[in-house]
Amino acid sequence: MQAIIMAGGEGSRLRPLTCNTPKPMMKLCGKPILEYILEWLSLHHVTSATVTLGYLPHIIEEYFSEGKYGDIDLKFVRETTPLGTAGGVKHGLPAAEEDFLVVSGDALSDFDLSAAMQAHRLSNSAITLIATPVADPREYGLVNCDEDGRVIGFNEKPSWRGVTTNLANTGIYIIRPDILELIPDDRPFDFAKELFPLMLEKHITIGTYVDKGYWCDIGDLESYRRCQTDLLNHKVKHISVPIHPTTQKDYQIISPSYIGAGVRIGNGAIIGPNAVIEEGCEIGDYARIRSSVLLSDCYVGKNSRITCGVLSQGVSVGKHVSIYEGVVLGEGATVEDYSEILPHVLVWPHKTVAEYVRLKSNLKVGEVLGEFFDDAGICGTVGIQITPEFCARLGCAIGSIDGVDRVGIAYEQGNETKAMYHAVLSGLCSTGVQVWDFGPLNGAQMQLASSLCRLSLSVYLKRDDACVIEILDSYGLPCSDETERKIKSILNRDLFVRCSGENYRDIADLRHFKLVYQQELERFYPNGLSGVSACIQAEGKEDDRYLKDLLVRAGGIAKKLPLFDLSKDGRCLRCIDENGNEYSTFATTVLGCRMLCRQSPVIAMPIDTPISLIKLIQSNGSDCLIYGRKNDRSARQLAREQGWLRDGAMLALCILSYMKEHHLTLSQCMKEVPVGTVCEGEIPIVCGPSEVMEQIKEFTRLTDGGALYESKSGIVRIWPAKNGKRIKLLAEAANFEVAQELCGELQGKIADILDTE
Fold first, then answer.
1. Smaller CB count within 10 Å for the chain: N or C?
2. Could you give the domains of the chain?
């Protein structure tokens, strides 16, 4: 028997699943629909099949590149222009010599084709169509027959009032070759709308073969999911899908479910019933997936819930996400932590739903990014929130800001940050801005680069607990809220500037900037360091080696103590004096401010500076300008001149120079620092931060930029994080233990309020 398979449709009702995949190649329990169809044809001795192609034809051709499936020889015919169902069949089999079978490339069935062919031959019909009884005839083209099974009319998707039969036309036909002569060559022509009425008009017999077997026309998203459930429950006679039994190990799989090769499942996860998890998927701890389909290489985070949903290839779902009935996520889409997607919402390929978003409508154009700026910058997990695609778009957004002409970029050493840096770099270049490439630097060095070079903006990528992308202004400080709003607006609306090929600019290579930075360090010990004993160390090998050499070249004596230890990003400094006493970053910053008070009547500090430090500056006769607020330009300009307060190496050299000038040891210098310390804390919130700040009024007082909690043992500053997802705390007390206890006490009070809401 010869067959022709109509596989050229776009599958528009299956979008977003079919945006990048032709409908016949959509997988059902591990195999494409078309493969199941070929298995079915093989059971009924079909030896050759012509496949008509239209939408994304190369994907089907490449999958069946050998031109054969089992005992079936395959031939592929492309339609360059739409020809309709009948026109496509004639185009694929223009010179058929014997009766042939026509089947759809998007339907699954176990009908007895051999019996249908035999009935066709006995009836001498020109065409025999296979019909099947359906429960709800309103969704199908219906076939009206006489008592001998001859077609007398058709009824296309009637209302209940117009229903006269429950026999649906399955689109499976057995056709006599001479009927092709009725089909024109030069225009689209349809079986049901044109050929069949023409045949009835000419009194050409159309017969029917009624089969009550399984048939599912996979025409929409619900039928696609339902068909897989039917496979799992053995409703298709000739298909056997591996069924995993219920297990009670580290995770639970409830039968019937299909688990593909290489699937990784976390502890406490529950899969099924009626779940399909394709190859390469990863399911996090305590996730729950029921009556859902996950195509290959999906990731589902810890404690997420997916019910009656469909995830296309490469979808990433963060932790504590809820996905409800009828939700479909297109290829490569991302749903970030704590988000919720309401029933029947469709998300198109490669779109992002941000953290804590409750998505109510389809996401097809733009992004739902939410508030992605945090206090430290743009923070996220590589591969979830921070991806090369996002970084490229971020670069486009920064380069598209009016007035931005020169943009610097650097990264902390590491494979992840380097990959994201290249993506941001590409996005920047596409807008035509001049890019200054500083290569690998630490954070302190990048601050100085931004400040010295007077760049419009700078991008710095670093790796902490997560990937962090900092946007710095021309003063080397975190960019203003206004700049952040511009970046978010351009990203959310895709308002990117694009330059033509001839307007791309050369990238300025500033990878020698470390030499400039090292020269800058020499300004902080103008009289050398002869006779001063110390050790300066940094985490980066290159920086560590240079700082140790610098100390010796300046005349210092290298010893283990006192020790000046730089943080990973080079911005913070902690010390251990010659007696082994340790001093925190806060203590060394206080010392630096006290030293600066002797030189400057005004000191610039960030908005989250501890109150005790501001009071210390004022008690030493200096004023304090705060940056991080609106209209803070003068504070930012001053901070540029006092950048050494935010650079651990520079601060260390200032302290060493001060020790030499005043003939002091480090412990003697630290005696000038008032006793006191700070402890930071935070509380995750789901409700709005304004609600929390309103609720805590009963035991705090409002201040500029937050609230203040006061007790006999110390004070705690309270303010919402920039992304609105946490409440931040900064406790100040006589020692760290008291500050820590005070911070914990307030965390408990706020948590109790949130629990009662």
1. C
2. 2-217 (3.90.550.10), 242-359 (2.160.10.10), 373-510 (3.40.120.10), 516-600+642-670 (3.40.120.10), 677-756 (3.30.310.50)
